[in-house]
């Protein structure tokens, strides 16, 4: 009897928190914004009629943020068309018949952690609306949309933010409505390289991942408590980065020095962000070329080179587990891209852009990053139900094989907090984290819809008569079993309700955020902005390469300006000594 009751409690617990749902896949593509304007991002329209918007997935924020037409916060002197492309589209509330405005994040029933002023990178000022969100065949009505009252994450993250943090409003809404069953997502940014054969749409899978986009072994790590240095909480150790030259020779960037601890941050421009000295300096020594200036285009502050001198080979990133991820030259090196006054993306093919940002001097202590374009060559799966993330070498394909994590079922109100954990990296040969829910199909037909004709044609099972005594016994037993099931269900749900009473959600660092206005100090996020971070983001925005020269000269000859920041090395080497230039 005791075993039966335990089984019933488990069943009741499952009924309280389980939903039947398959993953939802969104394309990462060049989203059309009208008049020839394109912006690469997650395609997810808003409003009625739908307004095209291009979103950037964000690992740390939890809410869905979009700039609107009345407060776009674009740099002074820029055109409205430039601003529209820069922002990935602007939300026009007046053109949506389905929108409602609300007073704040609480009235919107969104996550207040994104607006907490104790954390420097948060969005302190905001307005809120409820509107329709179109996710492929899924439509979420009265979905909370945050509209920033300030510019945040300057340059590296200009688009609308699709918050995929551990308390993601989007994942929560999809779970509550039964569209997905797992608090997880998979991301492949697709290819946006220098050549035609390096162009391919990517995908963002909500509630699972796309196994067709993975290949070979993987590495799995625990999600740590977010910090200022690594807001995602996802850290990996890079034991080496090798330069693979076209002639078949190889040279190491990391092995002569210490391994690199890198944070996953898919909203940052470029492939990676690393210290100039010693790592990127070693890259330049091996390549035999020095950069001429920084890009102020779409790949913000990455180094530009003369076409005749730029590195022609690939890179291979080797993690401590043994996993290797190859970065082909067609992804690593591109023309310098920028947005013109008409809002159209242009390429300056007279110079070559190596998509690696570097830190030095004031920013030299910053944590290294594996940034947005790294996820063109690597596939990421984040599973908050198990508090883990998994990385593979990406398989560039248009095929789709959607997978749901196996056996995991999580109450929406109870999210794993992670805590402070030591990362545990493992090398496996598994190409599946869960159970496949669909055969390999095209992205446009990823959701299997029921066919009424097929469903109606299913044969009706035949039945045989039972003896009266047997029938009465079955009925009586069924009544008792149903009563026990109901009692277990009520007990489970009441226990969970008492457990979560008074608590709105868990904050990104695992602390609890309460509704009461008098919150204790322990309820606030401990993260603070640092001067080294602000130095990276407070640079002035310029629109075209033509404006660079005059501005650059002023900075380079000034005292303490951006030019001084980027021109000095602790080693005392001159800036362009490799190519025989002077600053």
From TrEMBL:
Bias (Low complexity): 417-436
SUPFAM superfamilies per UniProt: Acid proteases
Assigned keywords, A-Z: Membrane, Signal, Transmembrane, Transmembrane helix
Organism: Cryoendolithus antarcticus
Peptidase A1 domain segment(s): 40-392
Entry annotated with the keyword Transmembrane: yes
Signal peptide from the UniProt entry: 1-16
Biased composition (Basic and acidic residues): 574-583
Keyword hit for Signal: yes
PROSITE patterns per the UniProt record, alphabetical: PEPTIDASE_A1
Transmembrane portions of the chain: 471-494
Region annotation Disordered: where it falls in the sequence: 416-436, 505-525, 561-583
Protein name as it appears in the record: Peptidase A1 domain-containing protein
Taxonomic lineage: Eukaryota, Fungi, Dikarya, Ascomycota, Pezizomycotina
